[in-house]
Specification:
Largest sheet: 2 strands, antiparallel
Distance between the termini: 47 Å
Low-confidence stretches: 90-104, 279-285
Number of strands: 2
Strand order of the largest sheet: 1-2
Shape: elongated
Helix content: over 70%
């Protein structure tokens, strides 16, 4: 906070560029304008404004400096990206197969012909992580999020340099398509969802996590119906709707099926993770 004072903040919040980005944060993160303003200020002060003294910052804000304006825009993009990454990690642990139903944020990726493809923040991070170097991961992430012009501006690339990096990244993805398919496969998402959900149930049963079994069942109706169809539970409706009054025999049968599916999902993911690891090691050879 040493490089910013009330005078700078007053000028900053009245700058049209800042106001525009505040509104964008408010709309995308479903915040009030006041909360969005505070979030953006905090992001700027913590990261983008560190390089300036109070005097330099005041001069730049007063002059509505173009580069500082871009810094505000990128701070807004960073703020939103961090928010969605946090939600994406939470979704991975809880409901990885149902990301579309969780507020993880949907990014619209546009190609050169103006066509758009929607992808969740969580899934984007999985894909980007498959590239072999941090330099390439940053390039791919920025290109997909912000497009060619902004990526060139931030990374200080000429058009020729940008096109070369794009060709290299595209060639790598094509050469290692099997590796990428492992993390974009919906079967993997489904197994993650099953394992994380059943781990959650196990923690509730063992008392290491708060919650009731009935609440868990109510939150995972589709999964529970699938488990019941594979189990030896006799009165399935009682398990689904009235856990506390269901017979012990049916409760034990349901739990046994949960343990069986939990083990199967863990085994599948262990094999998948090993395949991803092997693909990554081969790519680096």
């Amino acid at each position: 906070m040493k490089n910013i004072n009330d005078s700078i903040i007053k000028r900053l919040i009245n700058w049209r560029t800042f106001k525009t980005n505040v509104h964008a944060v408010a709309n995308q993160l479903k915040l009030s304008d006041n909360d969005a303003q505070q979030e953006l200020l905090s992001e700027l002060i913590s990261h983008r404004f560190n390089r300036y003294t109070a005097t330099e910052l005041l001069e730049l804000v007063t002059a509505h400096d173009t580069n500082l304006g871009w810094a505000i825009t990128y701070a807004r993009l960073d703020l939103i990206s961090k928010h969605y990454k946090q939600l994406g990690k939470r979704a991975q642990m809880e409901h990885a197969a149902e990301l579309e139903d969780v507020s993880t944020g949907i990014i619209k990726l546009a190609d050169d012909n103006g066509k758009t493809t929607e992808i969740s923040e969580f899934k984007l991070q999985q894909v980007v992580a498959q590239f072999p170097t941090g330099k390439t991961r940053l390039f791919v992430d920025m290109t997909l999020r912000y497009g060619k012009l902004e990526t060139m501006a931030v990374l200080k690339l000429t058009n020729k340099q940008y096109q070369r990096r794009l060709r290299n990244a595209t060639a790598y993805a094509a050469k290692h398509s099997d590796k990428f398919s492992l993390v974009t496969d919906r079967v993997r998402d489904r197994q993650l969802y099953i394992l994380n959900s059943l781990n959650e149930l196990d923690a509730i049963i063992n008392g290491t996590r708060e919650g009731s079994i009935q609440d868990w069942i109510d939150s995972h109706t589709k999964l529970v119906n699938t488990l019941l169809s594979e189990s030896t539970v006799h009165y399935q409706g009682a398990i689904l709707n009235h856990w506390e009054t269901a017979s012990n025999k049916d409760k034990y049968a349901f739990v046994r099926e949960c343990i069986s599916q939990q083990n199967k999902a863990q085994q599948w993911l262990d094999q998948s993770n090993e395949a991803i690891k092997e693909a990554g090691e081969k790519a680096c050879d």
